[in-house]
Design goal:
This protein is of the alpha/beta class. Among the domains are: 100 residues, Arc Repressor Mutant, subunit A, CATH 1.10.10.10; 97 residues, Vaccinia Virus protein VP39 (Rossmann fold, 3-Layer(aba) Sandwich). It is 51% helix and 11% strand. The protein has 15 helices and 7 strands. The strands form 2 sheets. A 4-stranded parallel sheet has the order 6-5-4-7. Strands 1-3-2 form a 3-stranded antiparallel sheet. A hairpin with a 6-residue loop joins strand 2 and strand 3. The chain starts with a helix and ends in a 6-residue tail after the last helix. The relative contact order is 0.07. Keywords: Methyltransferase, S-adenosyl-L-methionine, Transferase. InterPro entries: COMT-like, COMT_C, COMT_dimerisation, SAM-dependent_MTases_sf, WH-like_DNA-bd_sf, WH_DNA-bd_sf. This is O-methyltransferase domain-containing protein.
Length: 283
Amino acid sequence: METESSETRNQARLAILELANMISVPMSLHAVVRLNVADAIWQGGTNLPLSASEILAAVHPSGGDPENLQRILRMLTSYGVFAEHLSADATERRYSLTEIGKTLVTDGEGLSYASYVLQHHQDALMRAWPLVHEAVLDPTTEPFVKANDEPAYSYYGKQPEMNDLMLKAMSGVAVPFMKAVLNGYDGFQGLERLVDVGGSAGDCLKMILHKYPSILQGINFDLPEVVAKAPKIPGVIHVGGDMFKSIPSADGIFMKWILTTWTDDECKLIMENCYKALPVEGN
């Protein structure tokens, strides 16, 4: 029993060491996204294994340190982002993309999960994370506000570069999500006017209207600074506003992840405004 107890403690120590160093994983992921490594390996669909030196030459022809890149690649290989291929004499390592790694490849519409990675690791959020414990000590404390002097939505509204990144991140995530939804859900049938609350760039409405052309109008409803950057989409109008005050009327309302951002009381207010925006027979 003493041996088992000692082994258990050793495993616990190793586990806490891994947790303490876990920041190295998202930061390594952030690095390969910034370096555009996934597209360099993918090369239009070949996904041929490349060495760190070959990848570096593709992403930064003026030079750099392939050894440092290889350390990052090996780290992410252990988490399933890359596959490692050893040469016959085991002197050279090459890397290809796994299914996880392929989510970082830019598609024909310029989208991927890469922007989502960058958006979650941008400076404003990284300043807030070390303050999370203060929200436990004082429930009125909002780490993001304390770190950046204002709430997230107003902060991003004043940061065009970050706002653009958020739009691209949401588009990259929304498109595959909506493909899955539309393959298994038919609740949009029979609607003529559909509003997407927190619709960002309007990607979801674009896909819904493509599958259900009987919907005469889609309303992409989001903050004014968000919809100001949204592209023109046939059949879709972009409306800026505040969902805590009112929501455009329609016979159907669609919300993706917007409620995950708010407190229960705030979500209740949003849902009450949705109820007011719907006719008696609305969805």
